[in-house]
Write a structure and sequence with these properties.
alpha/beta, Nucleotidyltransferase, domain 5, 3 domains, 5-stranded mixed β-sheet, two-stranded antiparallel ribbon, 7 strands, 60% helix, Transposase_20, Transpos_IS110, Transposase IS116/IS110/IS902 family protein, transposase activity, Transp_IS110-like_N
Amino acid sequence: MLFVGDDWAEDHHDVEIQDVHGRAVRAARLPEGVDGMTRFHELVAGFLPDDAKPSDVLVCIETDRGPWVRALVAAGYQVYGVNPKQAARHRELLSLSGAKSDKADAHTLADMVRTRRHQLRQVAADSDIAEAVKVVARAHQTLIWERTRHTLRLRAALRDYFPAALAAYQPLTLTGADALELLAKAPTPAAAAKLTIGQISAVLKKARRRDLVAKAAAIQQVLRTEHLGQADIVAGAYAATVRATVAILQTLNTEIRTLEGQVEAHFGQHPDAEVYLSQPGIGVILGARVLAEFGDADGRYADAKSRKNYAGTAPITRQSGKSKTVHARFIHNDRLVDALHMQAGAAILHDPGVRAYYDELRGREVGHNAALRQVGNRLVGILHGCLKTTTRYDQTTAWSHRTQPAAA
């Protein structure tokens, strides 16, 4: 077997090839792209016997995605994507001086996959449609997170110079098209106080609001109420920043809607889409996010426990002497944990079996968030069983063990 450490950069790869005894037989710097991958194959082939298979080559690299990784997996190599923190800890075992270089990092990665591959997660080849779902689902979620950040900035700015806008537009939500359009029309307290009922109603009508006259009158009244504010020149400076933030939010709203359609289209093409959509608390967007983060490669999760561990819903036990405590996992896939938390929150509202389990946990004085984590952990196990058997979720089957009397 050969063990390859691949320290990647934007335009090149530093690689080192080790034999089973840990001897470095070759080190090289390869360019990114097709030429670099061709040279990589030639380097590896030069040290393999004629009867060797590509799976006899183990590659360790600090990423699990990208064209380079996909090419390595497609060639049949065993590829292990490691966290940079894992590599840094292993580097400390090999050198205490703190010295660091690309060549030394390649040596660290090769030694790591040679000595600790049983502790590393192998990169599994997801299907092309799963990769496509991951791309659009992550992009969609990233834009939503960006919208939240810009909304908080907008709220902070309005609080500093235009508190009347927060009170007037709060029922509309600041990310709504109507609130953003009104802020774009009148970003200062003086301009907002001059808005007429007709102008406000036109904006509300475009956003398909109901009871236009009453809502427009209420907004106008708040905008014309006297509030604390800033000097005119300061308010004008704030207004310039608010206009820019409003333009960004309007663009984000448009692109989020566009990407939502892409998420639905790609997710609907996946063969496991119906299984995901049958789960309690999961819709198209959440289903796409969960599929994107779990992937669909065969054999990636040996059992439900391994899927729960990857999801970050399974608790961690820490025991030393007489002390024994159970904690939530803090090292996890943030996107997956967020999706599963949202699923659990929706499932307790619509599925009686899930609700009964949640109520039982709350009855044992488990906090709300901790109870949702345990509910999410149980739902991950149910999802694993459904995917393994290619069956849709059935409430009776999933929760019958909690309703049937225990055997004597």
